[in-house]
Design a protein that fits this description.
The chain has 230 residues and is an all-beta fold. The chain contains 1 helix and 18 strands. Strand 13 and strand 14 form a beta hairpin. The protein is flat and about 65 Å long.
Length: 230
Amino acid sequence: VPFVPISGWHGDNMLKPSTKMPWFKGWLVERKEGKAEGKCLIEALDAILPPARPTDKALGLPLQDVYKIGGIGTVPVGRVETGILKPGTIVVFAPANITTEVKSVEMHHEALQEAVPGDNVGFNVKNVSVKELRRGYVAGDSKNNPPKGAADFTAQVIVLNHPGQISNGYTPVLDCHTAHIACKFAEIKEKVDRRTGKSTEDNPKSIKSGDAAIVNLVPSKPLCVESFQE
């Protein structure tokens, strides 16, 4: 990571090397992709390597909104998280299990031949009404590991700040990707050390602020979640 001394107020070392820092000889980073060096901040930003996009994984696109556009029809909108979305793809919307074909994909009012992870897109779908889709659904490829709703799931929960104790039956609202759904603490399985993840107590009666625990959660409505390994 390059360390670059700058003054944003005076504009020193931001876009061109400053004359007020004769002691600073420039920055240098060495990595397996090759060396990068420079004097000012813009060069350090330009030298950052973009991360590899997970295009090889199955399609996953959580819906942020759904619009009805005159002359076009139903247009769900969201950011591609994994995989590639193309016109002609047969998508399934989980957890409602609605399958349809993508007619077109657009980003910033321009038609795309394919959308990759990181792209915020709108896509037009056939024969699905706006009322059938909602924020929090996840679009996936019906032929390649499609997303599914989870009846329950096990999560590591860290209680940062909570008045009083939390015990089985507590039902907070979870924000998972774009979904916003109440989930019940069905069973607090074990308390764990926040740093190491090692179990410190099995089946605790309750947990409080500062504790970390492994908890079995049951969503009140179908919810798409993905395992941490994926």
